Model the fold of this input.
Amino acid sequence: MQRVKIAILGIGNVGTGVWKILTMNKEQVSARSGYDIEVAKVLVRDKKKKRNVEVPEEVLTDSFDDIINDDSIKIVVELMGGVDPAKNYMLKAIKSGKHVVTANKFALATCGKELAEAAEEFGVKLNYEASVAGGIPIIHGITESLTANKILNIVGIINGTTNYILTKMTLNGMEFEDALKEAQQKGYAEADPTSDVEGYDAMYKIGILSSLSFGGYIDVDSIYREGITSINSIDIEYAKEFGYVIKLLAIAKQNDGLVELRVHPAMIPATHPLANVNDSFNAIFIKGNAVGDLMLYGRGAGDLPTGSAVVGDIIAILKNGLDKNVERNTFASCPLRIKDMEDTRCEYYIRVTASDTPGTLGAISNVFGGNGVSLASVIQKGKGDVNVPLVFVTHETLEKNINKSIKEIKAMESVVSVDNLIRVENI
Amino acid sequence: MQRVKIAILGIGNVGTGVWKILTMNKEQVSARSGYDIEVAKVLVRDKKKKRNVEVPEEVLTDSFDDIINDDSIKIVVELMGGVDPAKNYMLKAIKSGKHVVTANKFALATCGKELAEAAEEFGVKLNYEASVAGGIPIIHGITESLTANKILNIVGIINGTTNYILTKMTLNGMEFEDALKEAQQKGYAEADPTSDVEGYDAMYKIGILSSLSFGGYIDVDSIYREGITSINSIDIEYAKEFGYVIKLLAIAKQNDGLVELRVHPAMIPATHPLANVNDSFNAIFIKGNAVGDLMLYGRGAGDLPTGSAVVGDIIAILKNGLDKNVERNTFASCPLRIKDMEDTRCEYYIRVTASDTPGTLGAISNVFGGNGVSLASVIQKGKGDVNVPLVFVTHETLEKNINKSIKEIKAMESVVSVDNLIRVENI
Ligand SMILES: NC(=O)c1ccc[n+]([C@@H]2O[C@H](COP(=O)([O-])OP(=O)(O)OC[C@H]3O[C@@H](n4cnc5c(N)ncnc54)[C@H](OP(=O)(O)O)[C@@H]3O)[C@@H](O)[C@H]2O)c1
Ligand SMILES: NC(=O)c1ccc[n+]([C@@H]2O[C@H](COP(=O)([O-])OP(=O)(O)OC[C@H]3O[C@@H](n4cnc5c(N)ncnc54)[C@H](OP(=O)(O)O)[C@@H]3O)[C@@H](O)[C@H]2O)c1
Done:
């Protein structure tokens, strides 16, 4: 059996998973890859820190130079996270002729084009199955299995933290803050949960999937993004009454060369397969012009599921023979044309607090009508208080019509506040 | 752009789908494969038959010699079905150095080892993503994406015809015969539905998946197989009362080098994701020792979904360069050790018709107890008739204990008939 040396940058959550899989499935990994894999170096910040796996002292290093200067290391597995210094380490590895495997959605979504171009130039592979939806083979799915398809749209639940929180709010009636605290205690949310709950994580991931599906790069900051912090238990309740469940969706659609991209909470029919994707599970719905509807469901995070994808990527490099890996650049060189959010169409749920005076409901309805928004249902909740909640659900309409309506409604004397706006996706 | 010639054997359902995709997604297929693909020959039985796509007259042939003797044809796409002559045509193509793509589960399940060994020997690729679950990338999933995992078990709804029939019986209260007729009218079932409704089709597919997952070949006839013809609307009703849905499952489990393989209808919890896989959709649940639970859901049949997988396989051959495709034989050379069905463990639903006399229920329960079968519930349906239906649901027990019990129960004087036995899978 041939031997190959690899280096792992970072042995936190995912790094630990990779180490465990390389140990527990050693025989199978060798058989499938054709190589006996030796983890020659593991880069960390703090060599003294207690680890969950036993890494021999001589393998641990806090200097990237030990790795980049070692020509016997053929694959660099980047599992540190963040753009800086991860991106530079990956570029250096690529330029030294080392193949790169990474789980880093942040670096890929923001610098994927540069990394992929470098990999193509230097004839090495850049594999990143783990960067989106952990153990779910969505990157492979799009780039290999569905490659004969024009991808028409993608609708995904691709952030486990927010899905865990929304599940607790939906099934256990918890409030956002309590559900977040529980998620943190269970290790599903970070101490600083911003990236997850504000939708950045999902934004990076849908950015990567769009580049691969539609064949162009995008500026991720041009993706419309809303988190789940404004979702209230009252909205979850009302959603239930209408037969919906609230999920944080990442949506990408292509039509006439124009790509629609958005990350936001949405009400989806309680009967849709995505509605039953609970806890920290992820799922991605894809529609291709040949395959039709396809859904992939599984664990989007965690040491072993994510490690499963990383080790799969390592095997993919090895089994073709280390030297035969030049591949076309997937983050194609032209930018995608992104549709203006104002021009997107959706149905909307809008919750308003207004004074319980005759004519208020009618007046608000008129504002919608005046802006070309037709209403599917209007419900006044409660009765007799000075102020009452009003809930409107619209038929499909343009985002700009909604925005204009909301502006006008907010200015009405009888309106106390527009409390929430949640898109309704009748997928 | 380089050009490559391919031949298609058979242009029925799937062949038509492949032809359509190569036409409608031509530009993308070229970009992803690096080749301009020309379908140089299409083999049919009857050149005069009206086709759903316009195949130029000079492309149609009824002689395989036109294809095998043409050295400019580099890939043969077998979409005829059946073992004879499909298998021989594939072997001849392989031996002439042509790559082979096929959707033929029957030929693969029975002769996969021979075909794969020949492909390895002659340095060509044998791709067959379409052979299991149509457009769902399950073959790729197992052999590539999950390759770092030990697969622990697979539970699949992999026959669209039976799933369509069971869905109609469950949601619309239809009887088997009527649902089958409707399936035939809609093109979901063949005039002779035996292969589907008796579970042969699912048996071939789970055979292929097992070989790939567990790394050995199997004699498909050693797979335990039951169809859905004995499922009665009354069983569907009772299942509902217990919170279950009846699906035709294909199950493969591995434990201590022993593989458990079975195809049969089963009651599964109505809340399980597989319970909501309806109509002709397919879905496959896989548990890997790293990735955990994973589910793939989509269209398991139909011209375009199946064609999507076939064209994906063609692109996979081309994009690596036509000459670099030697790969390890996936239908490994050792046989898998199959567990005796008598030694498998399950929960069971058993429906009996017996005389409504005092003591009958107790006597039957005693037979179960005497054979080490513990009962989870016993229900007598109806009252006052001479004969009444009794329904037993057991706790997990050995198949052989059930078989012994059934034999004894059938021999009881107060028992008119044992009407049905359906396994209960609390997945
Ligand atoms: N967690 C998941 O389930 C998951 C799922 C999919 C993708 N990902 C991605 O996988 C990557 C890793 O995530 P993780 O959860 O495993 O992170 P983590 O637990 O925070 O671990 C990061 C590791 O990288 C090391 N590291 C960080 N910065 C470093 C630096 N400048 N120099 C040297 N070592 C450094 C850390 O060393 P010390 O231990 O010494 O501090 C630590 O071992 C991220 O890109 C993440 O987005 C994670
Ligand atoms: N249908 C699906 O959705 C589906 C899904 C997955 C996999 N598959 C598999 O795909 C394969 C094809 O299925 P299908 O539904 O497309 O079959 P089909 O509609 O019956 O078409 C078979 C085609 O093969 C030709 N053919 C059959 N025997 C031949 C022979 N001895 N010589 C020359 N031509 C011959 C027929 O020619 P004539 O037209 O002249 O008779 C016809 O064009 C099968 O292996 C099936 O199991 C099918």
